[in-house]
């Protein structure tokens, strides 16, 4: 069965928020009269998270669950969802739905009009008064990480980590075989491959509406993030992303 959109939500021990996120996404699809699917991918999270999701599945047939007991990383998890998505337009967002659903509607309209093949949310474009403050690990990591990305790769985007992106089916089917990063820097790889192919990429300002907990640990994850950027840089130089 085909869908107008697929919304992929990676989750890991998010039992306190995932139910509300699903409710808001289902309400959005119904309110906008969009034929869509919601794919929740559990990245080895606990049983409480799985139970919270299954409770919603009983109420809403649009929800699909990919459950995995082993933690593989956010990139691997999003990629699992991308491979299963049947929508003409595909989105992924964080489990705490940090920008709510209005930006999804805006990106959906942009993609349908052919203004872009891929749209990424950018928190830097929003005015300071509109943005809530993220957890300090997210803020610090965002600044340092963005610097390294632009230093090493031909990407001009100032915010690759924002947890909302949308793309059309043609872009996804073209680039999916090239994607390899399993953890934090998968967004960078997606953007780089899409740009190399020549797809049209646009940024859209978003305001942080919901400051949820973060699974990011600076001491543990920051070195891994930089390592992954270097991996993407090396793969790019070696021609891995060439077509």
From TrEMBL:
<dbReference type="GO" id="GO:0006487">
    <property type="term" value="P:protein N-linked glycosylation"/>
</dbReference>
<dbReference type="Pfam" id="PF00535">
    <property type="entry name" value="Glycos_transf_2"/>
</dbReference>
<protein>
    <recommendedName>
        <fullName>Glycosyltransferase 2-like domain-containing protein</fullName>
    </recommendedName>
</protein>
<feature type="domain" description="Glycosyltransferase 2-like">
    <location>
        <begin position="6"/>
        <end position="173"/>
    </location>
</feature>
<dbReference type="InterPro" id="IPR001173">
    <property type="entry name" value="Glyco_trans_2-like"/>
</dbReference>
<dbReference type="InterPro" id="IPR029044">
    <property type="entry name" value="Nucleotide-diphossugar_trans"/>
</dbReference>
């Amino acid at each position: 069965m085909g869908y107008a959109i697929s919304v992929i939500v990676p989750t890991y021990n998010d039992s306190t928020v995932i139910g509300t996120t699903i409710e808001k996404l289902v309400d959005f699809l119904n309110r906008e009269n969009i034929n869509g699917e919601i794919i929740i991918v559990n990245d080895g999270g606990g049983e409480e998270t799985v139970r919270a999701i299954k409770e919603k599945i009983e109420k809403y047939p649009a929800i699909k669950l990919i459950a995995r007991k082993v933690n593989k990383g956010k990139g691997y998890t999003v990629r699992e969802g991308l491979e299963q998505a049947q929508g003409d337009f595909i989105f992924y967002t964080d489990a705490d739905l940090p920008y709510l659903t209005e930006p999804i509607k805006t990106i959906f309209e942009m993609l349908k009009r052919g203004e872009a093949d891929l749209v990424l949310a950018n928190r830097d474009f929003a005015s300071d008064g509109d943005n809530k403050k993220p957890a300090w690990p997210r803020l610090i990591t965002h600044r340092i990480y963005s610097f390294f990305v632009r230093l090493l790769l031909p990407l001009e985007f100032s915010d690759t980590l924002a947890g909302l992106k949308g793309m059309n089916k043609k872009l996804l089917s073209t680039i999916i075989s090239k994607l390899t990063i399993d953890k934090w820097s998968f967004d960078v790889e997606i953007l780089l491959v899409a740009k190399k192919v020549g797809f049209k990429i646009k940024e859209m300002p978003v305001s942080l509406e919901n400051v949820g907990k973060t699974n990011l640990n600076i001491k543990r994850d920051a070195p891994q993030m930089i390592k992954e950027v270097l991996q993407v840089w090396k793969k790019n130089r070696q021609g891995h992303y060439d077509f």
